[in-house]
Description:
Bound molecules: flavin-adenine dinucleotide
Distance between the termini: 53 Å
Structural class: alpha/beta
Strand order of the largest sheet: 3-2-1-7-19
Largest sheet: 5 strands, parallel
Shape: globular
Amino acid sequence: MENIVIIGNGIAGVTAARHIRKLSDKKITIVSAETDYFFSRTALMYVYMGHMRWTDIKPYEDWFWRKNRLELKKAYVERIDTDAKSLYFSEGGTINYDKLIIATGSVTNTFGWEGLELDGVQGLVSKQDLDELEKNAANKVACPSAVIVGGGLIGVEMAEMLRTRGIAVTMLVRENAFWTNVLPNGEAEMISRHIESHGVNLRHSTNLDKILADDHGKVRAISIKEIEEEIPCKVVGITTGVKPNIPFLKDSGIETDKGVLVNRSLETNIKDVYAIGDCAQQREPIGNRPPVEAVWYTGRMMGEALAQTICGNTFDYNPGHWFNSAKFFDIEYQTYGWVFPEERKKDYEAHFHWKHDDDTKCITIAYHKDNQKFLGINTFGIRLRHEMMDRWLTEERGVNYVMEYLRDANFDPEFYDRYEPEIVNQFNAEFNTNIRPKRRSWKRMLGVRS
Ligand SMILES: Cc1cc2nc3c(=O)[nH]c(=O)nc-3n(C[C@H](O)[C@H](O)[C@H](O)COP(=O)(O)OP(=O)(O)OC[C@H]3O[C@@H](n4cnc5c(N)ncnc54)[C@H](O)[C@@H]3O)c2cc1C
């Protein structure tokens, strides 16, 4: 019986395992050092905030693994011998494989600052990080103030977590507004104001200099680069992005760059060794996608695609149109297609931007300057229907069409206020058009042709 070994029990590795099991009777072993069972990394914050218990963020019951003949081994793989097809564990012992899937995820990205080793300095990626935060920032007496370094998705989550316990939070952001390497300025500035409205001291255009210790090796403050200033704190959250977790592959012969290099079938340079999820790097980037995609749903899609290949039906990873979603305190964010920020905007790309007066809702639509083709949309505080966005991108609709049928795309719950007339009015005024938003049609939404 073919022996499949997967390193990593995150969404990528577990999805591959589940689908291989659906398609075959192969022996499957999942090795992971972090936790006994798979959990939803995206929900870590809700455990600290008390919205969920640890057990609630495990997508499968503990009996699921045995029932599906998925063997779990809790161990850290420190070395791979690809000639002998063996893994070596730091706890001692080895395991052999016929086919190996590397799905080892990400670790916190750091930039060599002085003081990173101090007690109280931490990232927010793993279960161990969550436990650490519970210890370091149990409440505002033990931890009156914290500094978060880096403005991105994880940084804002950490700020929200700490604020729920009344801890004073200062956030250092290198850019002049929140996440400007991803969001156009109008959105970035609105989210900056929203973060500040939650009592976070958001310091734009500010870089960490050093992390300073007290006499016991614990954090006491940080200093910043731009001016002579120390900010006292008990916790320093490092949220300057993540990078593939691959140092253990150093002498394995498996080719790496930022991540493990793979082709579209997710094969590495070594026969029978594959990589998926956050740790994989596409040799040939797919469209506008970054070669390393540290995103939940792409890990799942890679796992599904690879299961097919492993079971004899060679299958390319084909993620379709880009989408993603997140939440910045109270504001939900969705993105479909490509809306580039000013610093990376394509020469053919133009934007239409609308913002509500209450400063908590806005949209940006990107379209092609020459042919008005719809390229992508970002929304904040307004939910969109995924299938509609996917369809309009596939059908290569024009921006006027998107305006006309915008009501079809709205996915806000019943009785929520709707803003399509306001949005379209502004569009008409700016572009000298006379578009009248069509009433919502279930027939159109379901793709029923009349
Ligand atoms: C706080 C947070 C919030 C996030 N929110 C979102 C979100 O809202 N939306 C979104 O799309 N994405 C989000 N992400 C990203 C998303 O969670 C990741 O893209 C996804 O979990 C990666 O899955 P993976 O299977 O590739 O790896 P992981 O889930 O990281 O799993 C890899 C596992 O392999 C283990 N491992 C690594 N090396 C070894 C070794 N040598 N031996 C044994 N085991 C090893 C690791 O310990 C880990 O358990 C978030 C991430 C974080 C940290």
